[in-house]
Amino acid sequence: MKNRLAELRKAKGIRQDELADIVSVSRQTIISLESGRYNPSLILAYKIARYFELPVEQIFIFEEDTE
Amino acid sequence: MNSVKRSLIYVAGLLTLGTILIVFSVKSEGDNTYLTGLGGGMLGAGIVKLIQMVGIMKNPEQIKRYNNMQTEERAVFIANKAGNIAFSVSVVAELAALIYFSAKKNSDIQDFLTWMLCVQCALKVILYRVYNYKY
Fold it and tell me: Least enclosed by CB within 10 Å: which of B32, B41, B66, B89?
């Protein structure tokens, strides 16, 4: 699943480890999320969306929607 | 129970078991160098883990990060995946060993391996059913 996590994080001016602390995961998880190697659970996706104050669909893009 | 407490229990277990193995191997007769090695390894691992935990416990931020790293979903996902593959590989390896020792007509090891395989596979099936029902 593609996502805009890296773009949104940089726009907000926070580091990966800071975002990791905010959503209670490790920095490795943020790295894996941003590179698309790992997809978040619903709870983690909502935590991230709540932090960025955006709907989940605007951060995590389900593949079919991009075609 | 949080991850720090769980890790401390694990450290205590390692140190205790390592000490018991070493004491047992020293006091018992015969060639027990493998027990000494095993006990020494456990003791060493316990000491290293204890030093790590002492460092973590001094800082509340580190405690929070450690708890996150142990309980976060990606770590659990990776541990489950690794555990499943390790289980499958170990069953195949035991089966290969069973065939080998059957050919060598070593009935003691054959019996032991057969029971091990049965218990492992039965446990996996039972646990799958339990969690399937629970979730």
Answer: B89
